[in-house]
Amino acid sequence: MQDEADDPPSAVPPPPEEALESGGGGRRTVFVALGAAAGLAGLTAGCATPPLSAAANPSVPGAPAPRGRLEGQSVLVTGAARGIGRAVCLAAAREGADVLGFDIAGPASRHVGNAPATPADLAETGRLVQSLGRRFLAVQGDVRSRPALARAVDQAVGAFGKLDGVVANAGIMVPDGLAEVSDEGWRDVVDINLTGTANTFRAAIPAMSARRRGRMVAIASVLGRMGAPIAPQYNASKWGVIGLVKSAAMELGGRGIAVNAVSPTGVNTTLLRNPRQYAAVTPRFVPGRVPEAVAATASRNLHPLGVPWVEPEDVASVVVFLLSDEARYVSGASFDVTAGLGAIYTA
Ligand SMILES: NC(=O)c1ccc[n+]([C@@H]2O[C@H](COP(=O)([O-])OP(=O)(O)OC[C@H]3O[C@@H](n4cnc5c(N)ncnc54)[C@H](O)[C@@H]3O)[C@@H](O)[C@H]2O)c1
Asked: Residue 159: inside a domain, yes or no?
């Protein structure tokens, strides 16, 4: 187990002299002069701004052997039992992180269209993480409970020595229109998708602030960036997640915490691939009676890259980037994984 003292916050390099120059012409001159002075010597003897990691630039002479991009880190992932959450756990473990997987592993709302995840699903995520040589802690809990998340953070810090990243991924879809959604269905979506994300972030703030280092990632949705005639409670919750991410990024930056969102289009998971959801993407059809092939064609036609949906791993790779030092100055952003659908936004 790594001790906090062994792992100080990554040093922020001083601004290059070029950045201190105010005038346009002088700026260029200083930049060119610096470049010439650094030259080949900089490449062999070490640059003023070192590579982010050996993994980022393993060909630098004398660099240590490449390591995973999250080597020695620990990450808490909600909704870890299956789908995108499981893919994030595995991608993080593959890059060297220990993982705490948090999941309700049972029914979250009686209004969703898909079957609930099970404790066996969560255990399977753990088995797969451990098969990659990393540690895994399974915690069964509900993101609607901030105390449950606070306890999970304590468990992660107790087991792994620190908490480097949290991924607020747990979420549900209730595919009902505004005219028919029940009060309970509306509340379940907003409480889990939006308040659950805030609860996850809030639970991690003390541990991350103490080390002045942390990375928070929320799984929003393309439906958090554009309107759609289905499931307004889902859209509203995901727009809210992006607003939360941007505000948290501004508030928490001074504590060394970066906060970002990933906004996928439809993803190949049970949340998307179930009959009630098919009816929602092709609303002229009778709920529960839309063949998957019809829904897939309708969905494929929405995506410039010509796929009906993306894979959980396509989302996980962007999450890993945002957890890694390669993204050390990325904060307050929403990254699309939309197979081109996001090109429809106005800006
Ligand atoms: N699948 C898609 O098409 C898609 C697209 C965009 C965004 N998303 C978002 O990605 C995230 C993951 O979705 P997925 O597709 O992997 O779905 P999924 O249903 O396969 O997995 C969701 C996981 O979250 C867990 N969960 C649900 N409510 C919970 C709660 N209250 N507390 C703790 N855990 C809870 C579930 O048990 C499940 O394991 C969600 O936030 C979803 O809105 C999904």
From this structure: yes
Ligand 1 binding pocket, CB closer than 6 Å: 78-79, 81-85, 103-105, 108, 114, 116-117, 142-144, 169-172, 192-193, 196, 219, 221, 264, 266-267, 269-272
- What is the position in ligand 1's atom list of the atom closest to the CA of 144? 31
Tell me the pLDDT tens digit for each residue of 104-163: 999 999 999 899 999 999 999 999 999 999 999 999 999 999 999 999 999 999 999 999
- Residue 47 maps to a domain: no
Structurally, how many domains does the chain consist of? 1
**In this predicted structure, what is the pLDDT of residue 281?**
72
Is 97 inside a domain boundary? yes
Per-position b or e across 238-267, b if 16+ CB within 10 A of its CB = bbbbbebbbebbeebeeebbbbbbbbbbbb
**Dist. CA 313 → ligand 1 center (Å):** 14
Phi then psi dihedrals of residue 79, to 5 deg? 65, 40
Measured in whole angstroms, the distance separating CA 20 from the mean position of its chain's CA atoms is: 34
Contact 341, 265 (CB under 8 A): yes
d(CA 342, CA 347): 10
Among 26, 52, 48, smallest CA distance to 37 is for: 48
State the Cα–Cα distance between residues 63 and 174, nearest whole angstrom. 50
Q: Is 90's pLDDT higher than 50?
A: yes
Alpha carbon of 167 to ligand 1 centroid (Å)? 12
**Tens of pLDDT along 31-76?**
333 333 333 333 334 445 455 554 455 566 666 666 899 999 999 9
Give the CATH number, domain containing residue 131. 3.40.50.720
Active-site positions?
234
What's the pLDDT tens digit per position in 211-239?
999 999 999 999 999 988 889 999 999 99
Cα atoms in the 13 Å half-sphere on the side-chain side of 229: 6
Q: What's the pLDDT score for residue 230? A: 84
- Domain interval for residue 242: 74-344
